[in-house]
């Protein structure tokens, strides 16, 4: 089943349109270069999956399915935090394009890009504090700590063919799933839900986020630069060994030679991609993503089927079907 992103969020389309307008108001900066860099990042678009999930969870957990002003603001904060992490990621990975356009550090420089990311984190923290909910502040603040933990784990394991799937999942949680899990939980806190409901939606977000990252890692190998919006094989180039490659190593040990050489030229990257796509690696990685999606869906279907959950399920299916 192919699902187009513009059909993902019909019940919160109005809120997402308003969110796009509000994001630009949230990044006002006194220095024109800082503002231009931040606005450039937001103008690259994206599917807004993270803020949409906040709005959808708000729809399910609030009385009379009325999303509160605080939840709408949380959706905006979530997207600003996500974009702050992207600009830092692009500097660390030396990625020249994202979503088909030049990255902030490519247009300006690394210093401006790092300061832009810091500025966006600071702005999101200010708006987060203004929600006046200490539990939400604690929940979302943990995400920024997790981003740093994930980057350190990734940076110290480059070209490490001994990394385990458990290590990979932990890193993927820190880098991707933590934001989705914590923002889903924070939404339920704003809905005044009990701790059991908060935990349910935290786990839903965690497993959805892990699946999202695994599928991203598959796409890095199987998709073209044009469809990715960034160079294919970026993970290989930077020495980030992901699930498809790790599963391939079990079947194709000759891949180790290319890892030892640290994919020193373009031909090595292309060869590694060919080996991986002709192995069980892609299939096993997708199976792993599907396991996490099924856990996420089970949580929602088993406990909240009396609610209007179809859009939340649609997002879950979309995450998995991006590689079809």
TrEMBL record:
Q: Which domain of life is it from?
A: Eukaryota
Asked if the Swiss-Prot or TrEMBL record annotates the protein with the keyword Chloroplast, the reply is yes
Q: Which InterPro entries match?
A: Isoprenoid_synthase_dom_sf (IPR008949), Polyprenyl_synt (IPR000092), Polyprenyl_synt_CS (IPR033749)
An example of a Gene Ontology BP annotation on this entry? isoprenoid biosynthetic process
A Pfam family it matches: polyprenyl_synt
This protein's cofactor list reads:
Mg(2+)
A single GO molecular function term of this UniProt record: prenyltransferase activity
Coiled-coil spans in chain = none
Alphabetical UniProt keywords: Chloroplast, Isoprene biosynthesis, Magnesium, Metal-binding, Plastid, Transferase
Q: Please report which protein family the annotation says this sequence is part of.
A: Belongs to the FPP/GGPP synthase family.
Q: Protein name, please?
A: Prenyl transferase
Instruction: Identify the species of origin.
Output: Ophidocladus simpliciusculus
């Amino acid at each position: 089943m192919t699902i187009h992103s513009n059909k993902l969020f019909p019940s919160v389309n109005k809120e997402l349109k308003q969110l796009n307008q509000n994001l630009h108001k949230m990044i006002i900066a006194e220095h024109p270069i800082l503002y231009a860099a931040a606005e450039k990042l937001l103008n690259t678009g994206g599917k807004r999956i993270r803020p949409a999930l906040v709005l959808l969870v708000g729809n399910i957990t609030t009385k009379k399915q009325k999303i509160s002003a605080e939840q709408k603001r949380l959706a905006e904060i979530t997207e600003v935090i996500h974009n702050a992490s992207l600009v830092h990621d692009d500097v660390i990975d030396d990625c020249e394009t994202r979503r088909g356009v030049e990255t902030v550090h490519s247009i300006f420089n690394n210093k401006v890009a790092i300061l832009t990311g810091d500025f966006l984190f600071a702005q999101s923290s200010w708006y987060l504090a203004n929600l006046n909910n200490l539990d939400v502040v604690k929940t979302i603040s943990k995400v920024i700590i997790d981003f740093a933990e994930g980057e350190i784990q990734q940076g110290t394991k480059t070209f490490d063919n001994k990394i385990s799937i458990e290590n990979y999942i932990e890193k993927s949680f820190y880098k991707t799933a933590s934001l989705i899990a914590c923002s889903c939980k924070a939404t339920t806190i704003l809905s005044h839900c009990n701790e059991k409901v908060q935990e349910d939606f935290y786990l839903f977000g965690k497993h959805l986020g892990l699946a999202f990252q695994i599928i991203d890692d598959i796409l890095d190998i199987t998709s073209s630069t044009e469809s990715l919006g960034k160079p294919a094989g970026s993970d290989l180039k930077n020495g980030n060994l992901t699930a498809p490659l790790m599963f391939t190593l079990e079947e194709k040990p000759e891949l180790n030679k290319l890892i030892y050489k640290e994919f020193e030229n373009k031909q090595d990257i292309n060869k590694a991609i060919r080996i991986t796509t002709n192995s069980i690696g892609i299939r096993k990685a997708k199976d792993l993503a599907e396991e996490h999606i099924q856990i996420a869906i089970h949580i929602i279907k088993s406990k909240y089927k009396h609610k209007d959950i179809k859009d939340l399920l649609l997002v879950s299916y979309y995450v998995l079907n991006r590689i079809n």
